[in-house]
Structure formats: C-alpha cells, structure tokens
Amino acid sequence: MTPEEIGTRLASLLGAAAAPVEPGGGPESVSGGGAFARATVDVPLAGWRDALRAGRDDPELAFDFFDWLSAVDEEAGGFTLVVHVWSTRNRHGALLRTRIADRARPSAPSIVDVYPGAAWHERETREMFGVSFTDPGDDRPLLLPPEFEGHPLRKDFVLATRVAKPWPGAKEPGESGHGPAKRQPMRPPGVPDPREWGPDAGSLPADTERPERPARPERRAPGAARPERPDRPDRPARPDGAARPARPPRVAQPAPTGAAASPAEAAPVEAGPVEAGPVEAGPVEAASPVEAAPAAEAAPAAEAASPAEAASPVEAAPAAEAAPPATPTTEQPED
Questions:
Q1: How many CA atoms lie within 13 Å of 93's alpha carbon, on the beta-carbon side?
Q2: Where exactly are the structural domains of the chain?
Q3: Which residue in 8, 106, 212, 330 has the fewest CB atoms around it within 10 Å?
Q4: Whole-angstrom Cα distance, residue 159 to residue 169?
C-alpha cells in the first residue's frame, strides 16, 4: 500500500474521530522523506488510544510493531504527541499525531495496554516535556535524577549550565585574561544573562555601549566620473653637476692553496733556444704533472733543452742510459 492509501484506510476506520489537518481538508497527509515517506493521520486527544488500537487490529494495516513515541513543543499551541507504528507483515508504517492544548498541565491517555513497548517512551516524554500519561501511566524517573527540576526539551527551559558552572577554557575573546574582547560575547538561545540570573546576578557590571562606527562613504554611481586623486609630491632633484657615486671595485677571490692548475687553465709558454753553457745540477720544479725523463748520456744542455710547451701534459720519452740525474726537465726532445 502507498502512504496515501494507508492514510485513507486509517482515516476511514476512525470516521468522525479523525481530526482534519487543515480547515476543509482531510485528517490524513503524507510526511516528507521521498522513499521513506509515511502516512500521517491527526486524531483528537480523546480518540488517541482507539486510533492506535484500530490500526493494530485492522488486517490490511496490521500495525503490530511499536517504533517510538515523543512530543513536540509548540509553545503557545501546547504540545503535539507523535507515535510511529509499523507492520512487520505488510512492510509499511504510519505516523499518528494528537494535540495537547493545556500547556500548564499536559496529559494524555497511556497506550501501554495497546503497545507494552511504549512504557519507556512515555516515561521519557514525561521527563523531557512534562507530559503526564494516565490510565495507567508510570511516573517513575527514567533518565534524570529525582531532584532534577524542569523539563530539558521544552523551549522555555533555561540552559543555565554555562551561567552556573564555568566552562573549561576560553569560549569567547577576552575570557581567558590574555587581552580585551574583540567582539561582544553572544549567548545561545535559552542561555540567560549572567547579570540577571545565576550566582553572579546583580554583581557584574553592565555592558558598556559600543561607539558607533563611522558611516561609510557613498558608493560611486555607475557611469559617474572618478574623483581626482591628489597629486604626488615631486622628488627632490639632484644638484647640478653631481654625479652618481662610483661603485667600489670588485676584489678578486684568491685561488685555493694547494690546488693544481688544470691543463685547460694553464697558459701555453713558448720555450726558446737555450744558450750553451754549463747547467748547475739541482732539482727543478715541474710546472705540470709530467714525469721527467733522464737526459742523454754526455749530451750538452743545449741539445737536451728543445723548444716545447712547458705546461703540456705529455709523457716524456725515456732517454739513453747512464745519464746523470742532475738535470731533470719537462721538455721532450725532438726526433
């Protein structure tokens, strides 16, 4: 059955006992939720128990399973009692509602004899909303201690926790003592003013009025010319003949000590003919990493020193035997 068919069937069982949702309309309607929509039927308070029994005993509806019961605070309109029932055989459900107009002493007939599982839901609704259930009814506390005062789910219930007990940490700017408040603290709905209610009532200073903000300038109309900007001040001119100071010369970085120059960086040096004459024997430092070859036996120094590049990294050919080791050279003799 569709939700519309379920609502029509339940309203026909109740007959004149059903209450119309709107003037000129029927008592049945459909809740939101798309595929989870439920047929909703409004009944008067006097026919509350009979309507649930009729839905349970009807073979087409067969609402044999009680789901939940609760209330809605309508403020000046009293309370709306809502119950959801389900058929385990036909796999469909319905919502039944009734209105309790007496807000001072709200009460409704109990449905425990129709659905025994509603006992805990009625006890919870009595604690949270103050709705009492009669015939038989159960007034024992379920969730709150016996000394608790008030009904927490009523819209007029004062949320006094933040006023009577300080919250851990800073919830508003300036509460932690690290600096002045940046904005006016805001109280959630239901939280009373600590200057008027609670242990500090009458002892806290009144809020100082904020200074009014300066009015914003009017916006430029579309198409209107922009206001002229003030001229920028001229920069001071340099004195005549004054030149820009020269930058200091760059200082060459010294080469790292102990590092050998590479063959590419070394400049080629042309070796000219050496005048004939005696050559003193002694160690000679090579300008490039080239092994020194021994000179020819009994050869004059002029013949051993041939023109070659001093920094050329070429291995020197071995000379003849019995050459004195006193004249090492880095030059290669010509063929």
A1: 15
A2: 3-134
A3: 212
A4: 19
